[in-house]
Amino acid sequence: MMKKDQMRFFTPTFFASSLMLAVSLLLISASGCETKMDQGSGASEGPAMVQIDTRFGPMVVQLSDSTPQHRDNFLKLVEDSFYDSLIFHRVIREFMVQGGDPQSKGASADTRLGSGGPGYTIEAEIRADHLHFKGALSAARQGDNVNPERRSSGSQFYLVQGRPFSEVEMSGIEGRIANFANEYGKGLENVENGQFVYSDSSKATYKRLGGTPFLDMQYTVFGYVVEGLDIIDSIAAVPTDRRRGDRPMEDVVMRMKRLN
Q1: How do residues 151-172 score in pLDDT, each as one tens digit?
Q2: pLDDT digits (tens, 9 = 90+) for 52-100
Q3: Maximum CA pair distance of the chain?
Q4: How far apart are CA 63 and CA 76, in angstroms?
Q5: From CA 218, how far away is CA 12, in angstroms rounded?
Q6: Full set of structural domains in the chain with CATH
Q7: Which of 11, 112, 133, 191 has the smallest number of Cβ neighbours within 10 A?
Q8: Contact 31/22 with Cβ under 8 angstroms?
Q9: Element (H, E) at 152
């Protein structure tokens, strides 16, 4: 049986100099982002929207109908006030801000966070057309070594900040992602002959807006920040303590409400 400190839901650490992922033991986004999720035909009243309030201001996320299990689960947790008073417990500048651990509610400064959840995981809904642009709302998960199906945490999520990537960097990442295209990308726009490819528009967005392309095809992206993208920058800029798992020195508390 795994020890508690082996049950943490993390996104991996990225070493930009080598364009390689150093995967953690367990893995788990200027306002007006132009990125939109593809919506399914059943969205008669438009995509679901959720507002995330922080001390820096609100963000509005648009959820994707193309990832229905993650959409519905997130909405239920929001409507049940699950996320209210939780904190962004892991913050890494030019990477991402992570929250959703129920153990973070009112947690003391010495509490080790990152292992909590609602008691279940969600089947992966990884899509080649849902990329980790800045502002992506993605599900954290355990690492491939214990989670080969890449099932998502039932509650922990991260919002991508990232940084701009050059065309050369994108080409290197594209080649590595090709290994996962057959399993997760069949019939999608960014897959040609079973190989993952970035469209010119995707490359332009990563170059202009930024993000974390090295996470593409490995985690379920199920929404995007469409208002308040600069709030991610404010959260990512707070001082953190690496000894406490990159937890902010001063808690960044969240509250959420469904808008439609």
Answers
A1: 999 999 999 999 999 999 998 9
A2: 999 999 999 999 999 999 999 999 999 999 999 999 999 999 999 999 9
A3: 52
A4: 13
A5: 10
A6: 6-36+47-161+219-258 (2.40.100.10)
A7: 112
A8: no
A9: strand 152-160
